[in-house]
Amino acid sequence: MKKGFKIAIVIIDIVLLLAIITGVIDYRRIKDNKAPIFTIKLASEEEGKITYIGLGYKVIGYWGVSIHEPFENNMGLKFGSWFMKYEGSFDKDNENKDTHFFFGKVIEKHTSYVIVEPNEDEKERKSADKFLVACSEDDTACEVGTYVKITYEGMIRESYPAQIDVLRIEKVPQIESTSNMYFKIERYNVYDSIKYYPYDEHDDGTIYFAGDIKEFYIILDKTVSLKEYMMSSDKGFFDHIKFITDKLDKEELSDGTKVYSSKELDVSITVCNTKTKNIYFDRYQSEKIVCG
User: Fold this and answer.
1) How many Cα atoms within 13 Å fall on the side-chain side of residue 175?
2) What pLDDT digit, counting tens, does each position of 243-284 carry?
3) Vertex 41, ends 65 and 283: CA angle to 5°?
4) How far apart are CA 35 and CA 41, in angstroms?
């Protein structure tokens, strides 16, 4: 009896020692923005949450755009015991909830500011159709007719035109021709299934990326993300997509769905022929999308 009791005590001591050692190592790795190595990873796509379970401890964080993205892209990481309860809320585009951005067009220019009209799909458009943006007179992004990306912090103040605390104003190239257009795809290192996440939502439809696609870039005189490209002018949703698909091979399915692909780029773009007309970006010759 005493021998069994001693063995049980030794086993408990060993488990506690392992818990302390692995916990300290993983805690230090978390502080250095590195993935824990003595844990089991559990992911919840519905909540956007990732939980790493260790021996007596766990780490909870939230992924930015995909559960397959590198650990360093996780947001709001918190280290605690198995009993820790933690519910975070994070903007998928900005880790800092007080920082926002929108795309629009400069419609008026004054000595120290410009008036910017947000694009139709921007949520800021619901607050006001005109924003007063501080801008130096010699800034090329402040010319009338220029398409811009406005990054600001804090709340929209109730005035007309609406006023915001602008962090920066960036010129977005207006695309008129695809003659000198090239593409580049940035992928995550980890990829284990074909699951899609909404990348960019519009009234006419939603663009979905496969889980391993981090970003799709349009290369002209400068490199812009697909989202920036979609906001680069007041052209329609499908006009922008057509600029891209015109450079790819085309296959039309029996239900009218169109699949555009490039073996060289390892990409396929499926344009659904449904009421919502969603668009899916995936690998070349991936499993055909069933549009619902």
Assistant:
1) 28
2) 788 878 889 888 888 999 888 778 889 998 877 778 999 888
3) 45
4) 10
